[in-house]
Design goal:
Elements (H helix, E strand, L loop, with lengths): L4 E6 L22 H9 L6 E4 L14 E2 L9 H15 L5 E6 L9 H7 L8 E6 L2 E10 L3 H9 L6 H5 L4 E5 L17 H15 L1
C-alpha cells in the first residue's frame, strides 16, 4: 500500500439536487453513503481525510480528520482538492499525491488508487483523472502536492472552479475503468437526486443477497 498517498473524500457538498443537507450521511439500508465509500477506500490506501465545511462533529463517528475548504465558500471540488493538498503539505510531508474521491459515488473501482498511481511518472507532477465509457470523472483524481501553490493562486484569484479548466494548465493522463463485468454498472454511478438513492439501495440489496 503506497505510503506516499493520501485519500481525500469530498464529503461536504451542498447537495442542492438532493434538497440540501449531507447526502453522505443518508441511510442506505443500515449504512450511510460515507460508510460505504470508506469501506471501499480503506483497503486501497493507508491514510484518509474528509473534506467538508460546517461543523466537523457530524462526522465524528468516522474518526478521521475533517478539513474545510481553505478558499471561498463552497468553491466546488477544486477547493476540496486544495484542502487535501494543504493537509498533506502541513501534516504529512512524506505524501506526494492526494487521491480525491467523490462523496456520492459508492461503487467506484476497487483498484482505483493502484491504477491511478501506476499511471503517472515519479519524476514530474502529472495529474491523473478517472474515466469510464469515454467519459471523464474529474472529481476522481490523483493530484501532485507540488501543484499546491498554483492551485491556491488559481482559486484565490477567482479563476474557474471547473476541475478541467485547472487541469488543462498541467500535464495529465486519463485512467479508464471498465463497467462491472457482472452487473454492467458504471463504477462512477453517482447519487445526485433522490431517485438515485433508491437505485443505490436496490444495488446494495442485490450485492448483499
Amino acid at each position: 500500500m503506497p505510503a506516499q498517498l493520501l485519500g481525500c473524500v469530498l464529503a461536504g457538498g451542498q447537495s442542492r439536487r438532493m434538497g440540501g443537507g449531507d447526502k453522505t450521511l443518508v441511510d442506505l439500508g443500515g449504512k450511510t453513503m460515507l460508510e460505504i465509500i470508506l469501506n471501499r477506500l480503506r483497503p486501497q490506501i493507508g491514510s484518509i481525510i474528509l473534506n467538508a465545511n460546517g461543523d466537523p462533529k457530524r462526522f465524528s463517528e468516522f474518526g478521521l480528520p475533517v478539513v474545510s475548504d481553505p478558499v471561498g465558500e463552497y468553491a466546488g471540488p477544486l477547493a476540496g482538492v486544495l484542502a487535501g493538498l494543504t493537509y498533506a503539505r502541513d501534516e504529512m510531508p512524506d505524501v506526494t499525491h492526494v487521491v480525491s474521491i467523490a462523496g456520492d459515488t459508492p461503487f467506484f473501482p476497487a483498484d482505483l488508487v493502484t491504477a491511478m498511481a501506476a499511471s503517472v511518472p515519479g519524476n514530474k507532477p502529472v495529474i491523473a483523472l478517472a474515466s469510464s465509457s469515454n467519459k471523464l470523472h474529474p472529481v476522481f483524481g490523483l493530484w501532485p502536492v507540488a501543484l499546491i501553490d498554483d492551485l491556491t493562486e488559481w482559486l484565490e484569484t477567482g479563476k474557474s472552479g471547473k476541475v478541467l479548466a485547472f487541469v488543462d494548465r498541467h500535464d495529465s493522463v486519463e485512467v479508464a475503468f471498465a463497467p462491472d463485468p457482472e452487473t454492467g454498472l458504471d463504477p462512477f454511478f453517482n447519487a445526485n437526486r433522490p431517485e438515485d438513492l433508491s437505485e443505490v439501495r436496490r444495488l446494495l440489496s442485490q450485492e448483499a443477497s
